[in-house]
Amino acid sequence: MKKVYVITFMLIMGALHLQAQDQNFWIFLCFGQSNMAGQAPIEEQDLMVNDRYLSMATTDGPDRQLGTWRKAVPPLCRADAHLGPADWFGRTLIDVVPENVRIGIVSVAVEGCPITFFDKDQNAALIAKEDRDWMNGILDQYGRDPYERLVSMAKIAAKDGVVKGVLLHQGETDAYNEKWRKTLRKIYRDLQQELRFDSTAVPLLVGEVVRGEYGGICGHANPTINDISNHYPNTYVVSSEGCLPSDDNLHFSSEGYRQLGRHYALRYLEVTNPGLADVCRQRLAAAGFDKISLPSSGLTIKTNRKGDILSIVASEPVEKVDVVSFSGQTVKTFTLGGKKVFDLSLKGLPKEKLVFVFQSVNGKATTDINLDQ
Fold first, then answer.
1. Per residue in 287-303, pLDDT tens?
2. How many Å apart are CA 283 and CA 279, to the nearest integer?
3. I need a surface site. Which of 89, 217, 234, 260 has the fewest CB within 10 A?
């Protein structure tokens, strides 16, 4: 008889929990590195936020308290972040979902971090070795465990609503091989098991980085990102077509983030509610958001390496060349002042694969050089 009482009590408590959840409060988990945190200026149009769009505070700050909901006024990720893709992801959804639906964001992002910082089985040792002061300052805000912070805040959020999707923007640092893809899938499965959501109903949306044709210095990560949907179910790639970069060619501009957020929202609706996707697509087209003016560049380059000398022939005068690591850090800049034929010395550069970003008055071109060979 005692066993019957226990089972009855558990069923009652489960029913009470389901009643406490608002099925019309859609929760989205967002994680990644700098482009998910947001790196672009917040402008006046970004401050007008619908009351139905909320953000869970995943850190303490002057405008937020850890573990509590706040109106989704940017920055969403942390008080010291900026405008990011999640901002206009939620706004775009709010414009098309029924009026009784609310959207909630739970966002944790660490600038410059590898995907392994979100792998609960190996991140502690990796984070303990981190020696960059600026990154340690970010990690400290998350209790030095970004995965645990994402899970703990998601559990609080899930008391009020229902997890509907997982959004990732990460890969500039390490999305260049199969290991990245498998680690990401493990993280998604860990989230699914700890938060007990239905993996067949909760898609994983993975965003492209700034495209190489727009001058993106990490555009070479996109082939790996685009391949992920070929390996795992309910996993979808979000295009960064038309999402223009800021001057550093690593992060998106303010309008680039807005457009990327719209792409995330439309992709989510395409895989969960095609009818709403059609409505969303029509509204974006009516507002002119499907017509993006893309940069054009006539700059092309030919390179020839002999030892520590890289010889270049450019189609138009090159003003400067930035040498950037695959983690997005500029390691050296060559100022040329307008040359079409020139040599660059590779001496003193890190013995690793680097991206050379050539800039003329009219455009940019990039090429990868592996100095470890």
1. 888 765 555 557 888 99
2. 6
3. 234
